[in-house]
Amino acid sequence: KQEVTQIPAALSVPEGENLVLNCSFTDSAIYNLQWFRQDPGKGLTSLLLIQSSQREQTSGRLNASLDKSSGRSTLYIAASQPGDSATYLCAVTGTASKLTFGTGTRLQVTL
Amino acid sequence: DAGITQSPRHKVTETGTPVTLRCHQTENHRYMYWYRQDPGHGLRLIHYSYGVKDTDKGEVSDGYSVSRSKTEDFLLTLESATSSQTSVYFCAISEQGSGELFFGEGSRLTVL
After folding, report:
1. Residue B70 in contact with residue B25, Cβ under 8 Å?
2. Do A89 and B90 touch (CB under 8 A)?
């Protein structure tokens, strides 16, 4: 059974800092990995999708990497801003297109 | 933003009553999903659909049924609501079974 872990569960950083969020998964037989952000009381917003054949994806200040063999992905946020405060979740798509979510990292960017 | 609308957004009901949540999409995506989100459990798949009238169970399907009579609508029904079904319910869509997932804003259900 696929298990997805995100550490730390919560993170607080000052504005302007670069930061890395971690996601690890136990079964490397995945089709893709997605990163989402969720604001309080809202749905999930897709940030980046990395196919299993890719090593990384970039969107603006966000860069996600994937190391399938080691079961790890990182989400790098450059020059963090208070508006980046949210919960970040990763999810992997495995066999039979089954999606497994991590429980998220709650990020707070302080002024 | 993907065109996904969930209704109702908030509902309070009593144990034993039936409840139906609706998900409507304007993207013409083939796949539609119902998830529930609970503290400590993250997001868990209830049911999903891979086409009109084609549905299958997820990991927490007991006590729930779904129907999809049109591409754009996916209904989640709790035949007899229980307090353990108090949760936030999210609808999601994707073009392909292993494709990028887009979520609705959620429906908060409280069962007293």
Report:
1. no
2. no
Closest CA relative to residue B82, chosen from B42, B51, B109, B45 = B109
The candidate with the shortest Cα–Cα distance to B34, out of B54, B64, B69, is B64
Residue type, A100: T
pLDDT in tens, A10-51: 999 999 999 999 999 999 999 999 999 999 989 999 999 999
Residues of chain A numbered 3-42 and touching chain B (CB < 8 Å): 31-32, 34, 36, 41-42
User: Closest Cα partner for A31 from A106, A76, A100, A92?
Assistant: A92
Best mutation site among A46, A49, A105, A106 for testing chain B: the one with the most B CBs within 10 Å? Answer: A46
Name the residue type at position A92: V
Pairing of strands A105-110, A10-14: parallel
